[in-house]
Backbone:
């Protein structure tokens, strides 16, 4: 809704107040022109469809990754054209790969074209989307960037520069003295804790997380939820 | 002999909110409230401290979007209107409380007095030019002004190196426009770091940035001095990590100073308490109630419901702020003394970064607190030395080299606030626009665009930058102004895409371009070539 300067009492009040100072221009007010209306309408015409083959793996935390992808064309059509009847055996699949070891985890690709993964800290992950059929090679369509999950504990490495070397115990003491005890969990020199952490790092990921709220793309339905001013 | 160093860093940022297509707009109040409660009081306080010889010293980040809004003539004019409206209400309130609500009269008088002083500062002292005020403080050695991402884009969630580079380069160019020099430091938006950002910072000749605690504590190798000294990355860019103890003393809902029962209660506002008829001349044309900024109650107690809050006593609250300031400085000196033993004689540096808008807006007495902190620091300067980050670097103290851990200062310390089920839908569109912008720039790498195409390219870049603002994802995640945030993101993506399509088609709708330029008019100096492939 566009308002005119003389529509309301407070506008009159404001105009008087501005005039009283004399050194400022009057507020620039809305011009309900054709172009302005067109610009408003433009904001209501979404989405501009994404038409590209793209995949992106994003870090949320040391324990969680987010993957989304888009296709320029329906991959099933391509598959049918290439494989004919054999295409029926293939399912569109997401593959998460732990890069250091090559271990992988497969799951059916959700229609939402997005997937959360629970993972482990201090590892490198990559994701792929492609067609999978039991006993046949994975047909990779999209391959993501690598993501290194951050550590969730302090480093077991002390500096090589002599001035900055510090024994693990002394570092623990430093953290405790600074009320930073929580940062000392399972870190350097605490071999038992480190071992316990390492034991849990076996599978490439902890889980693929079903989405309560599927990844949303811009669509008329999405926009309906956000009524315009 | 001092026990250590103390560095206060204030991060002042608001998203670019400017709606010339509406004669009044609720979300523009964010800027107006911050000018009244934070920026003008800070300018006044720091200038006064400097004039009386207290030698305050701090680092202050003024984000590029905030600078552009502060320098915008339309928003300056609208702020004048806002201030006049609020002053008129404050005058009425003195009469009303004197007649019918005497327990609230001291607060009403305080508002009237403060707003009169604010009007004088706005019109006569700073003549609407707050950027100029801050620039003078920097030139006088009171503050070191840092830059930020151009639109506060959350760098780790920006998909291309070119788009990250643009956030930084546009910010640096904007800083030079406003402050007449190059910035030395940058506040990474949301303190969000991921490996590789330091390369872009070094290219922009930025010397340091601020990171969250665990960026350094979980960095590799482990930091010899904890967070009590900056570290440097392999390319020499320095990193100052946030001290937890000082953060908690101010931010914690349990032990933080702002929870003191004497301080002003933020959530109880005359805009919701007074009769609608009485307020109508001071509301927008839609007559909807909203926060107006005059608040008459004190915190009273942690679990006291809003309806049972007691009247606010301004003088008592200010005395409390002075006591808290003395306590804060005393604790810093003790903290330094305690740590310098553990650090083998190294003088600790305590880095205390905060949102500037905490002081004065959320915590009404916050600017008084800062005033007394600086007075106390001046009084005890033999025990603790106040520095800005670049001052510390100028001591040429040797810095440990580290690889930082990815991190942010958001909840849980990583990227969850800006990437979760509520806002993950933003990224496919944003990332597509980032790739498309570089493709557009590449089309004109060798050929010079005509004047209209040049404008369209630059405006497309502005729209992309605006879409990338971390504020939209934040607001959606916190369910605060979801509708507005989603709409803003969608608008900028839509405007970007229509401009991109025009450029690609070789036919630009000049009238539509002009309309979009008039709405999103920031960064006049922007050059789309910051998006060229690297």
Residues:
């Amino acid at each position: 809704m566009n308002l005119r300067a003389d529509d309301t009492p407070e506008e009159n009040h404001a105009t008087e107040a501005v005039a009283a100072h004399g050194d400022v221009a009057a507020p620039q007010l809305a011009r309900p022109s054709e172009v302005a209306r067109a610009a408003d309408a433009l904001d209501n015409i979404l989405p501009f469809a994404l038409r590209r083959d793209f995949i992106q793996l994003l870090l949320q935390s040391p324990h969680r990754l987010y993957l989304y992808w888009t296709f320029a064309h329906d991959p099933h059509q391509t598959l049918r054209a290439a494989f004919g009847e054999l295409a029926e055996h293939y399912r569109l699949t997401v593959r998460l790969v732990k890069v250091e070891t090559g271990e992988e985890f497969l799951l059916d690709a959700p229609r939402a074209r997005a997937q959360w993964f629970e993972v482990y800290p201090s590892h490198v992950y990559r994701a792929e989307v492609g067609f999978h059929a039991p006993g046949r090679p994975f047909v990779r369509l999209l391959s993501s960037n690598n993501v290194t999950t951050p550590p969730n504990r302090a480093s077991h490495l002390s500096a090589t520069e002599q001035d900055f070397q510090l024994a693990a115990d002394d570092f623990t003491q430093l953290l405790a003295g600074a009320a930073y005890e929580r940062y000392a969990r399972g870190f350097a020199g605490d071999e038992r804790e480190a071992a316990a952490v390492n034991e849990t790092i076996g599978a490439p990921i902890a889980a693929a997380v079903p989405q309560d709220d599927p990844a949303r793309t811009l669509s008329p339905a999405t926009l309906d939820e956000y009524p315009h001013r | 002999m001092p026990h250590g160093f103390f560095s206060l860093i204030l991060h002042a940022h608001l998203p670019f909110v400017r709606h010339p297509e509406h004669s009044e707009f609720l979300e523009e109040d964010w800027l107006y409230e911050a000018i009244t409660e934070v920026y003008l009081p800070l300018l006044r306080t720091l200038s006064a401290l400097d004039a009386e010889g207290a030698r305050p010293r701090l680092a202050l980040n003024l984000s590029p979007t905030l600078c552009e809004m502060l320098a915008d003539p339309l928003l300056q004019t609208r702020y004048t209107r806002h201030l006049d409206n609020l002053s008129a209400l404050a005058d009425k309130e003195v009469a009303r409380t004197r007649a019918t609500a005497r327990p609230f009269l001291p607060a009403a008088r305080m508002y009237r007095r403060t707003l009169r002083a604010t009007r004088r500062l706005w019109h006569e002292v700073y003549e609407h030019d707050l950027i100029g005020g801050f620039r003078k403080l920097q030139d006088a050695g009171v503050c070191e002004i840092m830059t930020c991402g151009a639109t506060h884009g959350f760098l780790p969630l920006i998909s291309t190196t070119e788009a990250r580079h643009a956030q930084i380069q546009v910010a640096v160019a904007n800083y030079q426009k406003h402050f007449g020099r190059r910035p030395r430091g940058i506040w990474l938006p949301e303190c969000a770091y991921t490996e590789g950002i330091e390369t872009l910072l070094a290219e922009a000749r930025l010397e340091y940035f601020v990171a969250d605690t665990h960026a350094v504590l979980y960095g590799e190798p482990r930091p010899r001095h904890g967070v009590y000294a900056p570290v440097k990355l392999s390319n020499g860019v320095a990193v100052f990590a946030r001290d937890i103890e000082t953060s908690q003393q101010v931010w914690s809902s349990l032990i933080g100073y702002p929870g003191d029962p004497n301080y002003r209660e933020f959530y109880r506002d005359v805009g919701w308490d007074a009769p609608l008829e009485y307020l109508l001349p001071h509301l927008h044309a839609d007559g909807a109630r909203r926060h107006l900024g005059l608040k008459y109650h004190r915190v009273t107690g942690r679990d006291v419901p809003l309806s049972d809050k007691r009247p606010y006593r301004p003088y008592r609250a200010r005395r409390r702020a002075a006591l808290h300031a003395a306590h804060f400085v005393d604790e810093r000196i003790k903290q330094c003394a305690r740590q310098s033993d553990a650090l083998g004689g190294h003088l600790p540096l305590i880095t205390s970064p905060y949102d500037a808008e905490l002081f004065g807006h959320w915590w009404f007495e916050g600017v008084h607190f800062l005033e007394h902190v600086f007075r106390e620091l001046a009084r005890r300067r033999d025990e603790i030395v106040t520095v800005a980050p670049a001052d510390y670097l100028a001591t040429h103290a040797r810095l440990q080299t580290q690889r930082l851990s990815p991190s942010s200062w958001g909840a849980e310390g990583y990227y969850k606030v800006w990437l979760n089920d509520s806002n993950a839908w933003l990224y496919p569109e944003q990332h597509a626009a980032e790739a498309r912008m570089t493709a557009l720039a590449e089309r004109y790498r060798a050929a010079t665009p005509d004047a209209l195409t040049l404008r369209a390219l630059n405006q497309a870049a502005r729209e992309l930058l605006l879409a990338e603002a971390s504020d939209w994802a934040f607001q959606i995640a916190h369910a605060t102004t979801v509708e507005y945030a989603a709409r803003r993101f969608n608008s900028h993506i839509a405007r970007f895409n229509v401009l991109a399509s025009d450029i690609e088609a070789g036919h630009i709708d000049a009238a539509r371009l002009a309309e979009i330029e008039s709405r999103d008019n920031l960064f006049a100096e922007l050059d789309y070539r910051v998006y060229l492939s690297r």
Remarks:
- Confidence is low (pLDDT under 50) at residues 1-32, 186-206, 209-229 of chain A.
- The longest strand of chain A covers residues 124-132.
